[in-house]
């Protein structure tokens, strides 16, 4: 029996032909992947294929997990947005890039604004709007750069907010209020 959890990138694992074609084995492997943390459907699919499961076994296993809502990209996006925004307020542009990297569909990414508005905790902390997130991000950064000279402070704030994915118009608006 091949070890599935070793997962070394330098040495691909080999599964027996019957295990690689087994929907049940693929589903169990997917459940172990999901037990480690929220994952998108594409991430789970890529990992299963990387472990050597056959495409049809992977598809059937993913379909079973979708039917019981254990694999749900919309729920993943909600969880991802809460985690990311509570950690560090970010602009929509950066959130979209991160979601695309994780394999979230463009259709779901277009719904990010609606998902943000649906979350009462994000709305309550003013993190649902781009301006609210920028203001919260600027408040975090002010402490870091508070001792800098005004011109250096302004430049560092602009750069930091840009790295967090905020548009220049939003940055100017936030820093304009700041000076």
TrEMBL record:
Keywords: Cytoplasm. InterPro entries: RecX_HTH_1st (IPR053926), RecX_HTH_2nd (IPR053924), RecX_HTH_3rd (IPR053925), Regulatory_RecX (IPR003783), WH-like_DNA-bd_sf (IPR036388). Residues 141-175 form the RecX third three-helical domain. Residues 72-111 form the RecX second three-helical domain. The keyword Transcription does not apply. Residues 26-65 form the RecX first three-helical domain. One of its GO terms (biological process) is regulation of DNA repair. It is found in: Cytoplasm. Pfam families: RecX_HTH1, RecX_HTH2, RecX_HTH3. Residues 1-27 are annotated as: Disordered. The keyword Coiled coil does not apply. Coiled coil: none annotated. It comes from the Bacteria. GO terms for cellular component: cytoplasm. Belongs to the RecX family. Modulates RecA activity. This is Regulatory protein RecX. The gene is recX.
